[in-house]
Amino acid sequence: MARLLLASLPTTQTEERAADRLVGIRLSFEMLPEQPAPELLDAIVLADRLGYYGCYSADEIYHKDAWLLFAAAAQRTERIRLGPCVAPIYMRDPTYVAQLAATLDELSDGRAEVVFGIGNIAMLEQYGVEWRGTRPIARLREAHQVMRTVLDDGAIDFEGDFYGYSGVTTASRPVQEHLPLKIGAMGGPKSMQLAGEIADGLHTACAYSPEALGYAVEHFRAGVDAPAET
Predict the structure, then answer these.
(1) pTM: predicted TM-score of the whole model, two decimal places
(2) Which CATH number covers residue 110?
(3) How many CA atoms lie within 13 A of 116 on its CB side?
(4) Has residue 149 been placed in a domain?
(5) 53-103, pLDDT tens digit by residue?
(6) Among candidates 9, 194, 37, 165, which has minimal Cα distance to 95?
(7) What's the CA gap between 78 and 81, in Å, rounded?
(8) CB 183 within 8 A of CB 140
(9) Residue 24: exposed, middle, or buried by beta-carbon count in 10 A (0-12, 13-18, 19+)?
């Protein structure tokens, strides 16, 4: 992690020009939390001290529990933002994701955010969850609406195509006026476009070439420019 930060410090004219292109870039790291919990917490603390913007973690059965780790890390860090990437809406009801996020936001004094998505496809298959042909993009849209309502209002009455609630309330309230809800997407393009349309950002994986990142940006911007769905 330190090596990555040092590599961005300009020492020549060429490096200065490269550094200019990095203006506005936020460095974060993604955990697959399988190491001993104390080591994972120490890594988050180190990232906080080094000035990393955020720490994200897979929210999957294969690893240590991301939400519990972040709750512990919140007490030992000051600036770094914390959140799952991704919270799987086929596995967790969005009201519970909102409750978890609001609680983490209180513990961290306003540093929580959520990256949500369909989830790990292999994991869904292992659990016997059928997602193909179930309108996953429409479900993502509705899950966002549910989470936004619970985070903003602390209550929800809702009847949609995928979720329904009557008089649901929670005492879990975020510190942030607007807790960010972002969408995690890999292949796209529809999930990337949806992120640009309704979410507070896009996280994408396995996109390490200029072409792959350009593809994600192109479709995210298409969503930003799309007319709002009524």
Answers:
(1) 0.88
(2) 3.20.20.30
(3) 35
(4) yes
(5) 999 999 999 999 999 999 999 999 999 999 999 999 999 999 999 999 999
(6) 165
(7) 9
(8) yes
(9) exposed
